[in-house]
Structure formats: structure tokens, C-alpha cells
Amino acid sequence: MDIRTIQTQDEEEIEQLIREAFEQSDHGYNDEAKLITNIRNSSCYVQDLEVVAVTESGKIVGHGLMSPCEVINEKGARFFRVGAGALECLSFLSK
Known about the structure:
Layout: E1 2-5, H1 11-23, H2 32-40, E2 50-54, E3 60-72, E4 78-89
Antiparallel strand pairs: 1-2, 2-3, 3-4
């Protein structure tokens, strides 16, 4: 298995992976793929922070997305961090 940054042609397969991963969860699918699309379309999106896990046959079986964010504490101090936006894998990998 390889981990690599996302390529534009991966987006449809990732959407299907997200749908499948969440449909099998206790909470079900609630349009999480739209959240990923919204993050990709934001000015903060960094393509190098979105990765996929790919089998030797080329099937995407995992997806991860991190997003830069700003945290402001109670004193008004600003901190810049990278936060997890999403992490999904096919169910056979999470057992």
C-alpha cells in the first residue's frame, strides 16, 4: 500500500469511499463528502495536506485531510495549527 497526495482524478473515488465509510458508522452518512468539497474550495486548502492510501492495484482504500486553522485563546493570542479535517478508510481495514 502507498500513501500519496491527492490527484484531481481521485475526487470521485474519494467521495464514494467517504460515503461507504460513513454509511457503515453508527451515525450514518450525513453529506460528509460535501464538507470535503467545501474545504477544497476554501482559500485555506493545501493540496499537499490531503492524502490517499492506495493498494497495489490502484484502489483508494483510505483518505486523510488536514487543514490549517487559527486558534485564538481567551487572552486574544493567535496560534496557527494544522487540524484534522477528515480521516476515512474502508471497513475491512479498520478491523
